[in-house]
Write a structure and sequence with these properties.
Layout: H1 4-12, H2 31-45, H3 59-80, H4 89-105, H5 111-127, H6 132-136, E1 139-140, E2 143-144, H7 150-162, H8 166-177, H9 180-183, H10 186-203, H11 206-214, H12 222-234, H13 253-263, H14 269-274, E3 277-281, E4 288-295, E5 300-304, H15 309-322, E6 324-325, E7 327-329, E8 336-338, E9 344-345, E10 347-351, H16 358-370, E11 386-391, E12 396-400, E13 426-433, E14 439-440, E15 443-445, E16 450-452, E17 459-463, E18 477-479, E19 482-484, E20 487-495
Antiparallel strand pairs: 1-2, 3-4, 4-5, 5-17, 6-10, 7-8, 9-12, 10-11, 11-20, 12-18, 13-17, 13-20, 14-19, 15-16, 15-18
Helix pairs in contact: 1-3, 2-4, 3-5, 5-7, 7-8, 8-10, 10-11, 11-12
Bound molecules: 2-oxoglutaric acid (AKG) and fe (ii) ion (FE2).
């Protein structure tokens, strides 16, 4: 057997990603497809089965796995691939392996995927203010992954450099330069120091660049001597850039609040102490719902125990079949486009109740609890289809509002799906949580300083419109990055069209419904 078998064995011992863009999503396979996948691979190349299904719910593990695919295997490809050579058992083995992986993953993981994993790690580090030393050693909260190697950290910092995130690059390289395994190897320390000096220079801290390299002034490394001379010529004393301090890029107050809410840092204790749980009446007198209020005005609540395991599995299965990278609406509200930036990093799929009648029971429950009419219909629907969402580690949805800007009088927009055309605004959002999340992933409302924790079997609920019919801009909300685990959710947007009798207008512009507060 050629050496790649070991590589594949090693990587596959954990898990194979199934979908494109799997850096941003839960890359686990459902047990059946995993079994299928591995039976096939096992038959062909006698690899072991996967042991730990939660392996990639840790961002460092996800990075390691992708790294094995992308970097570990590339030298194998390079050494085996030969256009004109005779077919031998090595090339057969190689082709077989490649075919098996491409068949089950869709394509061979590439640098784009590794970059996504690097991006997720940097984002999580800054978002959740993780301890850098622990992170490099593979530790996130109470979980332990294999430490990041020198090459891993260099890869991550090269990615930061490519995307001009010099502050992050500097912080990571500083930590790396202090590590024992780097300090004990002059060749590597010089390499890291030169990257660090270059990052300082690009950041505008020229004298700092000089200082880093001066520590190696005894070295005869020609590149280092050249760099040192160059930075020294730029670092003229007293120039304004020498006074520049190293600090993260400025962010808006709203984004700071968003991040702090995600970390759970800024919960106002007086406000918290007034929050209550209610046994709320529903349309059926003996059936009460369990409401936990996270904000009173406007009301944002978490309803507990509103979806059971069967419906959860059904929505997840539909999602797995239909997933594609999440889209956001473009500015002009006409087309949906795939976003390659970091605004929304997740996968979505739409589940239709006409095709899946078992979901109708679930929708009736939403109507019962909210008092709104959520019936899904093929024409003039009172709700949109279920949108199934999955976020893997680092996955998130930046602050946004759910309303679309349509009214009942807006002429149908042909680019929209039929459930959106002519059905008016998204009066309310009902979002089922289909999983728990080990860390991160909360739904937060920066303008309200409110936070809904992800609780499997529960659902978040709020109105996007006031009783007057005006949209409510205070409903700005976000899905926090998943730090550990995998988050599954499903939106049911309840449309204006069905609520003529269920939600009557108020007399004043800011009237709200009367709901229990004590
Ligand atoms: O995942 C979340 O917590 C929020 C998702 C969301 O806001 C949306 O899909 O519109
Ligand atoms: Fe949303």
């Amino acid at each position: 057997m050629f050496p790649s078998t070991n590589c594949l064995e090693d990587a596959n011992e954990h898990r194979l990603p199934k979908v494109n863009h799997f850096f941003s999503v839960d890359i686990s396979l459902e047990p059946t497809s995993r079994k299928r996948c591995f039976t096939s691979i096992t038959r062909q190349i006698n690899t072991k089965s996967i042991k730990d299904v939660h392996y990639c719910e840790n961002p460092i593990n996800a990075f390691h796995l992708l790294s094995r695919f992308v970097r570990g295997w590339s030298h194998v490809f390079d050494s085996i691939w030969c256009e004109d050579c005779d077919v031998d058992r090595y090339s057969v083995d190689f082709n077989l392996t490649r075919n098996v992986v491409e068949k089950h993953i869709g394509r061979w993981p590439s640098k784009i995927d590794m970059d996504g994993a690097a991006n997720a790690i940097i984002r999580l580090w800054s978002f959740y203010q993780l301890d850098m030393n622990k992170l490099l050693n593979g530790q996130i909260l109470d979980t332990q992954a294999e430490p990041l190697s020198i090459d891993d950290v260099i890869y991550i910092t090269r990615y930061a450099d490519d995307t001009k995130r010099y502050y992050e690059e500097i912080e990571w390289l500083k930590e790396l330069l202090n590590r024992n395994d780097v300090q004990n190897n002059e060749h590597i320390s010089i390499k890291v120091a030169r990257f660090l000096a270059a990052a300082y220079y690009k950041y505008g801290m020229h004298s700092q660049a000089v200082e880093v390299l001066e520590a190696f002034s005894n070295s005869e490394h020609t590149g280092l001597i050249r760099d040192l001379r160059f930075y020294a010529s730029r670092a003229t004393d007293g120039s304004k850039d020498n006074k520049k301090a190293l600090k993260p890029a400025a962010i808006s107050r709203e984004d700071r609040t968003y991040m702090a809410l995600c970390r759970g840092d800024i919960m106002n204790s007086k406000k918290q102490s007034k929050l209550r749980c209610f046994n709320r009446d529903t349309r059926i007198p003996i059936y009460k719902s369990k409401e936990e209020v996270v904000n009173y005005f406007p009301r944002v609540s978490l309803f507990h125990d509103v979806i059971g395991e069967e419906h959860i599995q059904l929505l997840k299965q539909i999602g797995q079949k239909l997933f594609q990278r999440s889209m956001v609406k473009s500015e002009n509200q006409v087309t949906y486009q795939e976003v390659s930036d970091n605004f929304r990093v997740s996968q979505t799929a739409w589940a239709n109740e006409t095709a899946n009648p078992a979901l109708q029971t679930l929708t009736r429950r939403v109507s019962l609890i909210t008092g709104l009419d959520a019936t899904y219909k093929d024409v003039m629907s009172h709700s949109e289809m279920y949108q199934v969402l999955n976020y893997g580690v680092g996955g998130m949805y930046n602050p946004h509002r759910d309303y679309l800007g349509y009214t009942l009088l807006t002429p149908p927009n042909p680019v929209e799906t039929i459930d959106v055309q002519g059905t008016g605004e998204r009066t309310a959002t009902w979002m089922f949580y289909l999983s728990d999340v080990k860390a991160g992933g909360a739904t937060v409302f920066p303008k309200l300083k409110a936070r809904v924790p992800v609780v499997k079997g529960g659902a978040a609920f709020w109105y996007n419109m006031k009783l007057s019919g005006q949209v409510d801009s205070r409903t700005l909300h976000a899905g926090c990055p998943v730090l550990l685990g995998s988050k599954w959710a499903s939106n049911k947007w309840i449309k204006e069209s069905g609520q003529v009798l269920t939600r009557l207008c108020g007399l004043n512009i800011d009237d709200i419904e009367i709901l229990p507060t004590k």
